[in-house]
Amino acid sequence: MTNSRQDIIRIYPMGGVGEIGNNSTVIEVNHDIFVIDAGLMHPHEDMLGVDTVIPDQSYLIENQDRVRAILLTHGHQANIGGLPYLLKKLKVPVYGTRLTLALLREMMKDAGESYDKSGLRVIDPNRELKIGHCTFSFFRTYHSVPDAIGIAVHTSQGIIVHTGDFKFDFTPVGGMRTDVSKIAKIGDEGVLCLLSDSKHAEIPGKTPSDAVIGDRFNHILYSADGRVIMTIHATNIYRIQQFLDVCALHRRKVAIEGRPLERIISIAAKEGFLNVPKNIFISWDKAQKYPNKGLAVITSGPDGDPLTPLTAMANHLHKKLKLQENDLIIYAASLTPSNEKTVTNAIDQLMSEGAHVIYGKNVHVSGHGSTEDLKLMLQLTRPKNLIPIDGEFKMMKAHQSIAESMGLSPRRIFLLDKGDVVEFIKGEARQGEPVPAGQLLVDGLGVGDVGNIVLRDRRLLSQDGTVIVVVTLGRKTKRILAGPEIITRGFVYVRESEGLLEQANHIVSEVLSKALTQHVSEWSSLKSGIRDALSRYFFDKTKRRPMILPIIMEY
Predict the structure, then answer these.
(1) How far apart are CA 443 and CA 138, in angstroms?
(2) CB 3.0–4.6 Å: which of 197, 206, 208, 279 could bond 372 by disulfide?
(3) DSSP run (H or E) holding 257
(4) What domains, with CATH codes, occur in the chain?
(5) By the 8 A CB rule, do 142 and 376 touch?
C-alpha cells in the first residue's frame, strides 16, 4: 500500500484490447507509472510485408521520468515481444520470473539488443515487492508457458489485480497450479479493480486439463508405424514434456528441428521447468539414418510458431522435413480465426499426399480460461470493478456478460479501447481523458515508418498491379524527345492488351503536350496529370486501379 491516504489511480491499455496479442496495460498510482507486459502481435493478412505489430508506446517514452518499472506476467511473445523495441528508448527495470527473464534475454539476443543485466530483476512469487511508493504481491497461475504469474498492486483505495493469462487446472502437468488460496486471500483484502484475461470468454464450460493430452499422445504413438512429427509453439513447455515422456515410454528417439525451439528447450531444462528423459535426444544427422518407427521430431518455425513448418511441409518447401511413407503429423496448437484457413489448407494438402495428420482437441487444449474459469476468478477476487483485457472486443463483451450474470453492475465494467483511461478517486471509477495509443508496424529495420498509405500502396500492387510510364523531355525545347513507354507488371497481359496500352500511350502524349504548351514544367504537376488521366482511363476500361508511376527524364 502507498503512503498516501487518497491515491489517484489511472488504468489504461496500450494494447491487447480489441485484438489478439500486443498485451500491455499501464497502471498509474499518483505520479508513478507501472507497465504490465509489453508484447507484440503477428500481422494480419492485409498487412502486406509487415513483420511485426507492436503498441505505440510514445506516451510512455514522453513520460519516462515517471515510469518506475515494467512487470511481466509470463514469457509469451504476445507479452514480452515488444520489449526489444521499447527498451531502446525506455531505460527502466524489468521484473519477471526466472523463466520469463531467461526467455526475454534470448529474445533480446536474437534482436541484436543488449540490456544491462542489473535491469532484469527476478520476481519471487512468494514475496512482496516494493517499487517506488507501491507494494506488489504475486500469485502463480497455470498457463501454457511455465512460471506465469498474476500481479496485485496494493493501493490505499484497494488492490488492483492483473491476472495475466491463466486457467484453473487442478491436475496440471508439472504440478504448478493457479494459486486459488492466495487469490482468495487477496479477494478478502478488497479488490478495487480486476483486469482479467478474456481470450476464451466466449467458450462455455471449463477449459480441459492438460493432463488429458498425455493419454492421447500415448495412444497415438502406440499405433504409429512411421515417423511422428509434432509442430508446436516453442514455448509450450508442458506439451513438449508430455511428448518427451511418451516418446521415452515407446522407446523413440527425438530430433529437434528449429533453432528457436532448440534454444527454448535448453533454457527450460536449465531453469528446471523441463525434465528431459535420459538419452532421448538424437542429432539431426543421426536421425536421417535412424529407423522411422523409432523416431519422433519436434519442430517449430523461426518465430517459434507451429504453422510455418506445417505449411512448408505441405508445400514441399521444408529444407529438412520431406514427407515419407507412414508419416504421422501432429499439429499441437489452437486453430484461431486468423490462421484456421491456412492450417486447414496445409492439413488438407498433407493428407492428400498420404500423411496422417492429427490436430484440434485431440492433441491440444488451451492455456486460457473459459467461462467457468473466469467465473471462478471473479468469485475468488469479488472485484468492485472489472476491466476485461487480452482479447478481441467480442471476447471482452462476453466477459462483461459473465460478470453481469454474477451480479456485477454494468456501470462497473469498462470495455476499453487502446488509450482509454479509467480513473479511480476515493474508490469511485470514472472515464478519464484518453492518452495517445495505437499500433506501430515493424518492417525489417523500420519501426513505425510503414503506415496506412504504404499499406494501401502495397494492397494496390498486390491486387491490380503497377503501370510505369517513362518519357524523356527536352530541357530547352520542352518537347517530348523519347517515349512515352508504358511498362506493366501484374495489371494486364500485354500481348492481349496492345490496343489498351496504345491508347494509354496516346493519352500520356496528349497530357504532356497540353501541359508543355501551357508552359507547365514542374515535374510534380506533369506526373500528377499523367496519373489522373491514366487512372480514369484504366478504371473505365478494366475496372482496375493499378499503381501508376510516371518517370520523367530531361535531356
Answers:
(1) 36
(2) 206
(3) strand 253-257
(4) 9-205+366-442 (3.60.15.10), 211-362 (3.40.50.10710), 451-554 (3.10.20.580)
(5) no
Alpha helices, DSSP H, located in 315-451: 340-352, 371-381, 393-405
Q: Please tell me the distance from the alpha carbon of residue 441 to that of residue 327, in angstroms, as a whole number.
A: 39
Terminal Cα distance for the chain, rounded: 76
Residues comprising the chain, all counted: 555
- What residues form DSSP beta bridges with 488? 467
Contact 438, 58 (CB under 8 A): no
Which residue, 149, 145, 221, is CA-closest to 183? Answer: 149
Q: How far apart are CA 340 and CA 98, in angstroms?
A: 33
d(C-alpha 276, C-alpha 308), whole Å: 25
Counting Cα atoms < 13 Å in the Cβ hemisphere of 521 gives: 9
For residue 278, give Cα distances in angstroms to 218, 252, 301: 19, 12, 26
Query: Residue 491 has which C-alpha cell?
Result: 495489371
Cβ-Cβ contacts under 8 Å for 28 (sequence gap 6 or more): 8, 9, 10, 11, 34, 66
Q: How far is CA 257 from CA 122, 296, 407, in A?
A: 31, 11, 50
Letter string b/e over residues 284-312, b meaning 16 or more CB atoms within 10 A of that residue's CB: eeebeeeebeebbbbbbbebbbbbbbbbb
Give CA angle at 182 (375, 34), nearest 5°: 85
SS (H, E, C) 494-538: HHHCHHHHHHHHHHHHHHHHHHHHCCCCCHHHHHHHHHHHHHHHH
Please state the φ and ψ torsions of residue 23, each to the nearest 5 degrees: -65, 120
Give pTM, 2 decimals.
0.81
Tens place of pLDDT for every residue, the chain, 555 residues?
554 457 899 999 999 999 888 999 999 999 999 999 999 877 655 544 455 678 888 899 999 999 999 999 999 989 998 898 888 888 899 999 999 999 999 888 876 666 665 589 999 999 999 998 899 999 999 999 999 999 999 999 999 999 999 999 999 998 889 999 999 999 999 999 999 999 999 999 999 999 999 999 999 999 898 999 999 999 999 999 999 999 999 999 999 998 899 999 999 999 999 999 999 999 999 999 999 999 999 999 888 889 999 999 998 888 888 888 889 999 999 877 667 888 899 999 999 988 999 998 889 999 999 999 999 999 999 999 999 999 999 999 999 999 999 999 999 999 999 999 999 998 899 999 999 887 776 654 445 444 454 445 555 555 667 778 887 876 666 677 677 777 776 666 656 676 777 778 778 777 777 777 666 666 677 777 777 888 788 787 777 777 777 777 776
SS (H, E, C) 188-246: HHCEEEEEEECCCCCCCCCCCCCHHHHHHHHHHHHHCCCCEEEEECCCCHHHHHHHHHH
Please name which of 99, 171, 186, 172 lies closest in space to residue 138, comparing C-alpha atoms.
Answer: 186
C-alpha cell at 417: 479501447
